[in-house]
Design brief:
heterodimer, A: 421 residues, two-stranded antiparallel ribbon, 10 strands, globular, B: five-stranded antiparallel sheet, four-stranded antiparallel sheet
Amino acid sequence: MEVAFVGSRSALFWLALKSGFWTVLSLGFYRFWMKTRLRRWYWSAIRPGGHPLEYVGDPLEKLLGFFIAVVVLTFYIGIVNLALMFVSFSVFQSSALGYSASFLGVIPIWFYAQYRARRYVLGRTRWRGVRFGLEKGAWGYAWRALVHWIITICTAGILWPRMTFWLEKYKTDRTFFGSAKLVQGGRWQMLIPATWPFVAGVVLLGALGVWLVYLDPVMPQMDASFDDTMDSIADAVEYGFVPFGWNGVGRLLLLIPTTLLMIYGAVHYRFVTKRILANHKHAQGVRMRSDLKGLRVSMIYVLGTTIAYIMLMLGVIAVIGLALSLLGPEAFLEEQIGMGDPLGFLPRWLSLGVIGLLYLSVFLFYSVLHHVFVTYPLMRHMAVTLSLQNVGPLTQVSQRARDEFAEAEGFAEALDLGAAI
Amino acid sequence: MTLSPQMPNGRFYDALGSTLVDGDVPVPQRATLMLDHDARVLEIGLPDSDRAGLRWPVNDIRQLPDIAGQEGVVLRLNSDPLARLYLRNPNVLKYLPKLKTVPAPKGRARLAAWAAGAVAAVALQIGVLVPLLADRLATYVPPAGERALGEATFDQIRTALAGTGLPPLPVCEGEAGMAAFEEMLVALGVERGTDDAIKLFVLDHEMVNAFALPGGYVVFFRGLIDAAQGPNEVAAVLAHEVGHVVNRDPTRHALRSAGSIGILGLLFGDFAGGAAVLFLTEQLISARYSQGAELGADQFAYGVLEEAGVSPAALGDMFERLRDEYGDAEGVVAHFLSHPTLTSRIDRSRAIARPDFRYMDVISDDQWRDLKRVCADDWLPPAAD
């Protein structure tokens, strides 16, 4: 059974633009509706066997979930941050440490929220009238994810494929379509081939490093301190001349293709592992098959992201320019040292409001472009390269009960996780 | 209500390619469509199934919104949350009057309750708990920690003021000028010569401002010294900043920011460009924080000035001078002056000064001349007339 993808980019563009506009006007509250509408659209575009997926999530339940998450998390985050900052001031005498520690403290909740959000989205997805679902197990996921990350970091990333596999298996083995339970087959070693392009990039970078620094140094004065070296590099960039004694500086240009190879490798890994994993998923004898093309996906990803980011940068620069001309260059600094009072003067307040709205508009336009140039083509490619095989047993699948879910994806929303769609 | 006379001849509709799922098994069934105009019911026949057809009242049929693609629509029945009719040919839609009717949202009371709860939780946290805890904790931060924090912040500010790529803004080091400042500190009865003593710096910048940082750092901008018409006005500002230091406002402020910025992060969620919005909002809040702290520092300054025999009205003079000189000027001063509580602060300092008491200058005229030249030996401020 093939999976079709319908719907045009322009329709998506207008839907995203329209709902983005309301989001800006409502100071962000419409974002729950925006997300719901976009998901409905994407889901209905994906049509296995000609029947669209359906997203039945409700904006109001998202709003409610967000409020619940805020109530729960404010206390945790406020108190924990304050305590960490206090320790950081008193014991380590720096504020940066406190901020990074508070970031670390959120990570377990982050994984928890990720799983809960997935459960919510699957629980609100149907195909041919039958619900998908994900079993409970968010804390189990959170601690496993933590342990896997620690192992991965301790092995300098070598065991990354193992983490990818086991976390995906945890989620897949708890996923249902109606009464049918999905199973993730295969072994983690099968993901290793997906790492080759990235590994090649790393090896090339290492080799280049050895050549440029030790074998035939670009900067022969090896006795110079690190700071001096960095200074001379800064000078070279700033004044556009090559310091005396450098040799074969053109070779530094080789870093560009190496970096590109590493970016390609990262995207390749992320999506090709999805293909390999999909090809080992089955439920009641129905098998998935994906023919996703790593190179194609990487091209979409890199080009789309570049377009969206360039527009974002242009927009942000324009808004900052406007802000400086309206408020004067000292406004930002003055607030930094705690003497500012933006509420004091109405026209100033007004110009702050205008700048704020423009700033949000720029980011929303970026997200619209991201939908049109990244999410849409990626989804389309993933959908049309996917198929279901041996679909006979589908007739034996029956409906599953609704997953009532008070806080929806509130935690993920509050913790800034649900950025994909 | 009667139906329009232009209704099609047959009551059957083209249902080729249309399917129904019953919400029980994921097996689509071929459907035929017949509209019973009299009963106002859409009859859905299932020719391939041994089950009877379905009768959907036309007023209860809804269309799923935001469906991608041009081909086909999806219909559902209000009273059946699961069954779906996938319609290939939309020609029957014009007889279904309530396709787009949205049901009234359920659970509004619950939503309102949680919304109020969320607002209350954030307000309680930012307005009460975090400040309370921050004030309490600030007194336990060891002086060495405060000093390190202040030093780091001072360096950041100097770098930020200088602009990118330039060395940090120079600190004025005119010896005679700094000696005059020292004299002023002594006259104000401020503790000197210990680790915890006030560390005073003058930055060579035209901004009319002064501020305090954790660890006893008090920083003047040259612009403020230029604008002052006498040593007492500088002394008044100095006393005010020392008040901030004594009340540990800078440290409290840093702790409060740490507590509240994370909470605000939650509110914005993944809504556009979180970090910067967050920064600005946090600034709004911290500006409000400093209102209470400002009054406390003013209060402290009155006491110190009175003690030193200097008129507390000097603080008001300094503020008023800014207003007179700059008038409707832009930037820093503009919003500073139009601030509603500033006038009351001026008035209060005047009210506290005893009208019949003979106040004196905090330092001598010679020392004042030295102080004015603290930023450059060969540089003189424009003569005031």
